[in-house]
Amino acid sequence: MGRINIVGLGPAKENLLTQEAVALAQEGRPNLLRTGDHGTVAYFIQKQIPFVTYDSFYDQAEDFEEVYQAIVKDLIDRAQKEDINYFVPGHPLVAERTVKLLLESGADTRLVHGLSFIEPVLALVEKDPVEGLLFLDGDNFRDLDLNIHKDTLITQVYNQRVLSDLKLAISEIYGDHHPAYLIIDAGLDSQKVLSLAVYELDRVKEVNHQTSLYLPRVEEERGLYDLADLIWVVRRLRGPEGCPWDRVQTHQSMKGNLIEEAYEAVHAIGEEDPEALVEELGDVLYQVVFHSELARERGDFRFEDVTSQVTHKMISRHPHVFAGYERDWNEIKYEAAGIKTLEEKIHHLQGFPSLLHGQKLLRLIKSLYQDFEIQGLTSLEEEVSEKTLGDSLLKTIILAENEGIDLESACKAAIDKVESQVLNWNESIKDIKEENKNE
Q1: C-beta of residue 114 within 8 angstroms of C-beta of residue 34
Q2: Calpha distance 243→241 (Å, rounded)
């Protein structure tokens, strides 16, 4: 099998071709160009260098991925017989899907570097990437990939649809008036930079396959912050020159705050107040970050462990979405936690407030034993409704307050009795089954 020389053509004109690229093109091997729509093709024609392009492949496929797969297959088939040269725009390792597929295929390849389109773009916008430059593919874009603290260069902005989708996603995060630079034909004589506000992006009609979008980072005075900023704030508060109160807090001292903030978020949801919900969800998030930072300081875990764990949990508990098969949620949950026995399932409910604990316990019992009855309870004689139950609970609260009884503890004690009853019931059933088995 022959070798595939993967050669960068540079960003645009023939004067940016490397000497090595020129030499390879003239050595007599088959020259295959991913596209003939490139400024250096004039050089091949002028010097009468034979070449073939893959432009026709773009008309025969449903999407770009199918095109790239077909090109790679053809290149590998051709290389079975002899060494070949494969020329791509710019640098082979910058935004070239076919090159990535070739390298992953295991074919015998050699990379010949070329100037990428990034350098001409940076020159046009007069930006230095040393403080961080995020590089994204406009045709495979997710708003989750954006980072407001980094300048962002988005390539593959080749038509109006891509530009319109980018505008909508960017405006939601950066705002309509954030500055943006649309760069067209970087490195060519026709190169152009349009300085725009985000809301103006989809008004530009002259985009082509050599269009990129440069998005400057958000300046601090804008007051737009992300999760990294919140973590920084907590670290500053906990640091040597931080807040005396925050510095002495522990998991134990802060656990009540977590419950309070959660209740306030629930109240905002009930009030259907979006502005209040923004504030209260922020307070809940602050608690999560604060506890994560406490753990990081102790060497227990980091915030990334929290997000990784919950992401893994949600993926594993939704196999019908992520894996293509159905499975019971509780079954997955118990398996992940190593819970097998009824006693372990009941113990799993211990962290809930007594009312919620009681309801979850009864649901668990009902799912296992339809004929189990709680002993020693007086049934309500009046018609049961949300109002009557609410009134009964209120009367119970008033009685407890008048008698100086801690209702949470009283309810917890009653639930403990039910747990003992159902565990004894479960043991008796197992004994009966064992006796029947031995008969």
Answers
A1: no
A2: 7
In angstroms, how far apart are the furthest CA atoms of the chain? 103
pLDDT of residue 273: 95
Contact yes or no for 425/369 (Cβ under 8 A): yes
How high is the pLDDT of residue 209? 86
- 3-class secondary-structure state, position 28: coil
Whether residue 62 has pLDDT greater than 90 = no
Which amino acid would we find at residue 126?
Answer: E
- Nearest Cα to Cα of residue 166 among 214, 96, 118, 228: 214
Q: How far is CA 54 from CA 60, 71, 76, 86, 100, in A?
A: 11, 7, 14, 10, 17
pLDDT, position 227 = 95
Q: Which residues pair with 88 in a beta bridge?
A: 8
117, 123 contact by CB (below 8 A) = no
Strands 179-184 vs 192-197: parallel, antiparallel or unpaired: antiparallel
Where does residue 338 rank: exposed (0-12), middle (13-18), buried (19+ CB within 10 A)?
A: exposed
Based on its alpha-carbon atoms, the radius of gyration of the chain, rounded to whole angstroms, reads 33
